[in-house]
């Protein structure tokens, strides 16, 4: 990066929506920008910062190695015992808007560490990279004359699906008219008109009250504000989502595709003289069980199905039982993440209540963990498939590792993601809207035995494209350079 020696490097403030999938990817972006010499302020909520300190202390300490990197803490406005998961994640939007937004503005005005420091090379914040679902940052940025770039943690396919919802309503294609209407193909999502069904739209569309549903309105409103930002950063790559990206560029011309971010972090550190980048950066808000890696070491090549439904999803006891029976009955080995806060009214944790056939099948072939180092798990040679909720980070991590997916999308962007995985990229199967032990048993076997060769062909090829895009000269690698250059010109 060419520095303005008079003024010092640009100072970028990065502000994620406070959940694992967002903090994780935006910390990776922060790391990449800091590695390029930019000064970074990373804004964490008090709740999440405490968790990072507790569960990822080594990872956190690494950031102090970057000159000009600082964490700042801001309240999320929720009580300490709020679950911040499942349906109640939505309550965070209200508190962020009512409590955090004014504090954010005040902080930008008054915190001396966000201003230029006379006699030092510290500049005032010259650019804000805000999570695209915290669009209040645009208002604050406009008021203070600081350019705001949006970062979305979802894929281009879901971003575009959200963006098109008002057009679908206007054309009378929404609302969905009950269960029997779920397989209808929608015509008004340009670029997806041959394969996107009602059931593949973001889950919030599953409402009759399409114009008044608060969750849907919130996500659509946030997405529709992005053209008002200076630019949009997406954690994706051109070779994966090129056609959809062309559609988005009609509304948001300035897009930087710099994904998969975790691969970029890895390849940027190759040959770097100042390597402080971490190829397996965890940024974990949960306590990691590393013993699962020892268990994996003892399993045969590509024999294990890894099962995880991300950091927010909650499930019922009944759902858990169907999956558990399906996995045990498949007779395949499995590594399953069941977070401590995942099952509502959990009885599965009490050994006495676990049916003996499940306990036995799990002892023989299974490993259940609270939280694992997922990138490392997916890269392990024993993994033959990923049974996933199709969160975007998980999808990208699976793509880079070349692991085929069995998708059970739960909410929000996961519905379109799983349609693209199965129908467009042919990287696996979509089990959407089904929760049945017989189906789980069959699909697990299809994924890692019966249709394995078919899926391996496309996953190997897509993994190659992902790695190429993140390597020197690749599309994401070059786009990151372009982003750094453009940020350097802001506020000069
Ligand atoms: C949510 C949304 O669901 C997702 O679609 C959106 O893009 C980001 O916010 P989440 O549900 O948690 O995120 O899923 P995902 O995006 O897949 O992120 C989960 C992250 O947690 C991944 O980076 C994954 O590697 C990590 N993880 C998960 C672990 O490190 N260990 C685990 O045991 C489970």
Could you please describe the fold and organization of this structure?
- With 492 residues, the protein is an alpha/beta fold.
- 43% of the residues lie in helices and 12% in strands.
- It has helices spanning 20-35, 46-55, 57-63, 91-110, 136-144, 156-170, 214-225, 238-249, 261-268, 291-297, 317-329, 356-365, 374-379, 392-401, 414-424, 437-450, 452-470, 475-489, and strands at residues 11-15, 39-45, 69-74, 127-131, 148-152, 231-234, 255-257, 304-308, 333-337, 366-369, 383-388, 405-407, 428-430.
- The radius of gyration is 22 Å and the shape is globular.
Q: What small molecules does this complex bind?
A: uridine-5'-diphosphate-xylopyranose
Q: Mind telling me the C-alpha Rg? A: 22 Å
Oligomeric category: single chain
The strand order across the widest sheet is 3-2-1-4-5-6-7
Indicate the low-confidence ranges by residue numbers. 1-5
Overall pLDDT level: 91
Tell me the major beta sheet.
Answer: 7 strands, parallel
Quote the beta fraction: 5-15%
User: Based on CA inertia axes, which overall geometry fits?
Assistant: globular
Question: Class by helix and strand content?
Answer: alpha/beta
Discrete helix count: 18
Helix-residue proportion: 40-55%
């Amino acid at each position: 990066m060419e520095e303005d020696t008079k003024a010092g490097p640009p100072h970028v403030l990065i502000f994620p929506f406070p959940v694992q999938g967002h903090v994780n990817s935006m910390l990776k972006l922060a790391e990449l920008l800091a590695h390029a010499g930019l000064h970074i302020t990373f804004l964490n909520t008090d709740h999440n910062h405490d968790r990072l300190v507790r569960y990822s202390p080594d990872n956190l300490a690494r950031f102090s190695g970057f000159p000009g990197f600082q964490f700042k803490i801001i309240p999320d406005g929720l009580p300490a015992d709020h679950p911040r998961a499942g349906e109640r994640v939505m309550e965070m939007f209200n508190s962020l808007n009512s409590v955090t937004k004014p504090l954010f503005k005040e902080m930008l005005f008054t915190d001396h560490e966000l201003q230029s420091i006379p006699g030092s090379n510290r500049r005032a914040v010259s650019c804000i990279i805000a999570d695209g679902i915290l669009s209040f940052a645009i208002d604050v940025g406009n008021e203070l004359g600081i350019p705001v770039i949006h970062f979305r943690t979802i894929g281009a396919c879901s971003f575009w699906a959200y963006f098109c919802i008002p057009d679908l309503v206007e054309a009378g294609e929404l609302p969905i008219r009950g269960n029997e209407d779920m397989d209808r193909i929608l015509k008004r999502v340009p670029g997806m008109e041959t394969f996107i069904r009602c059931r593949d739209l973001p889950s919030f569309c599953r409402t009759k009250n399409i114009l008044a549903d608060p969750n849907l309105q919130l996500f659509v409103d946030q997405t529709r504000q992005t053209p008002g930002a200076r630019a949009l950063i997406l954690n994706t790559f051109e070779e994966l989502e090129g056609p959809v990206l062309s559609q988005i560029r009609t509304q948001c011309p300035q897009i930087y595709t710099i994904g998969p971010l975790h691969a970029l972090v890895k390849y940027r550190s190759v040959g770097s003289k100042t390597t402080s980048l971490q190829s397996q950066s965890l940024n974990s808000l949960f306590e990691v069980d590393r013993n699962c890696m020892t268990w994996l070491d003892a399993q045969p090549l590509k024999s294990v199905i890894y099962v995880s439904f991300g950091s927010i999803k909650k499930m019922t006891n009944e759902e858990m039982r169907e999956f558990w029976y399906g996995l045990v009955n498949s007779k395949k080995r499995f590594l399953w993440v069941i977070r401590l806060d995942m099952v509502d009214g959990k009885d599965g944790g009490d050994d006495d209540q676990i049916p003996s056939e499940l306990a036995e099948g799990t002892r023989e072939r299974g490993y259940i963990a609270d939280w694992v180092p997922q990138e490392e798990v997916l890269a392990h040679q024993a993994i033959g498939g990923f049974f996933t909720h199709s969160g975007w980070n998980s999808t990208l991590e699976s793509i880079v590792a070349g692991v085929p997916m069995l998708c059970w999308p739960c909410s929000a962007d996961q519905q379109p993601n799983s349609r693209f995985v199965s129908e467009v990229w042919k990287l696996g199967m979509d089990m959407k809207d089904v929760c049945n032990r017989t189906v789980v048993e069959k699909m697990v076997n299809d994924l890692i035995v019966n249709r394995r060769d078919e899926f391996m062909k496309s996953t190997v090829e897509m993994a190659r494209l992902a790695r190429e895009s993140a390597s020197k000269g690749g599309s994401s690698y070059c786009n990151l350079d372009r982003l750094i250059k453009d940020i350097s010109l802001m506020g000069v």
